[in-house]
Write a structure and sequence with these properties.
- The chain is of the alpha/beta class.
- The strands form three sheets. Strands 5-4-3-9-10-13-11-12 form an eight-stranded mixed β-sheet, with helices on both faces. A three-stranded mixed β-sheet has the order 6-8-7. A two-stranded antiparallel ribbon has the order 1-2.
- Helix 1 packs antiparallel against helix 2.
- It is globular and about 55 Å long.
């Protein structure tokens, strides 16, 4: 190991072990800027599952999996009791922060990831952990099945890959699938929880999940991002209305507590939040 790599490894561990939470995120964010896109792989234990994985700290998602045991750890914590012995759809799984952290709690996880690069990493993680309750589906979830779409690669993080913004970093052709079609094909009796973050494809994805929303009534965790939705040609109120039409109540997780969401906030031009929908 080169001296610089060893030094970065020591710094990473030191940052993770800092005792005081004050300013911790800012320090960790600044440190990431020094190792971004590097090939610094360290093993770390994941939140809840306890699985040890080799994580590349040069990748934004894996960096936070290393630092905090999970990317978006508070949301991962929230979902833990909901997926216990249940069927979980991780739509926009990326490299598997939610999937791998919740793998030993959920009965079955179907992880949908359009990027073949991210899907390969997640499949490798599943193989390392020797898990047999996870299936990775390398398709783009949409309102049609069997079409081909282009997924453009973000130069910043694979979590920003999208159908709606050509970053100039290339892209790949991916087949589409609807969640309703997937459930029908696999004869899945019950979908209990869906987490979805697919960079502008959320509206189309839920247009293709009418049967699931009507009959399965899963708990939903959905990213609402006004700027991304605008790029995709729809408004946040479109998605909110579609979900609400199926008799769901919306909440935000504030200080780890469910707080009723005021839909008037959706009109804010730069609105961004992860919203939780619970059926009546």
């Amino acid at each position: 190991m080169r001296y610089s790599t060893l030094r970065n490894s020591i710094m990473a561990y030191a940052l993770r072990l800092l005792p005081s939470p004050f300013g911790r995120y800012r320090r960790r964010y600044r440190f990431f800027q020094h190792i971004k896109n590097s090939d610094l792989v360290l093993k770390s234990r994941l939140r809840h599952s306890g699985i040890v994985l080799p994580l590349n700290l040069g990748d934004w998602i894996q960096y936070w999996m290393f630092m905090e045991g999970a990317y978006e750890k508070k949301l991962v914590d929230f979902l833990l009791p909901y997926v216990k012995d249940k069927t979980f759809f991780d739509v926009g799984a990326n490299v598997g922060s939610y999937t791998m952290s919740l793998s030993r709690s959920a009965k079955r996880i179907y992880s949908f990831e359009a990027s073949s690069f991210n899907a390969a990493i997640l499949n490798n993680f599943v193989a390392i952990a020797k898990l047999d309750n996870i299936e990775v589906i390398n398709k783009a979830v949409s309102n049609t099945s069997g079409d081909q779409v282009t997924i453009y690669s973000s130069p910043d993080t694979g979590g920003n890959n999208t159908r709606f913004n050509d970053f100039g970093s290339g892209g790949e052709s991916v087949n589409t699938i609807t969640l309703d079609q997937f459930v029908q094909d696999r004869k899945i009796d019950k979908v209990d929880v869906i987490k979805m973050d697919i960079e502008g494809s959320e509206l189309a994805a839920f247009m293709g999940a009418h049967e699931i929303l009507s009959k399965h009534r899963p708990v939903l965790l959905i990213e609402f991002h006004a700027l991304v939705a605008k790029q995709a040609g729809w408004e946040l109120t479109d998605l909110y209305g579609l979900i609400s039409k199926h008799s769901y109540n919306a909440y935000e997780l504030i200080r780890r507590k469910l707080t009723p969401f005021d839909s008037a906030r959706l009109s804010t031009p730069d609105f961004y939040a992860n919203l939780i929908f619970i059926p009546d």
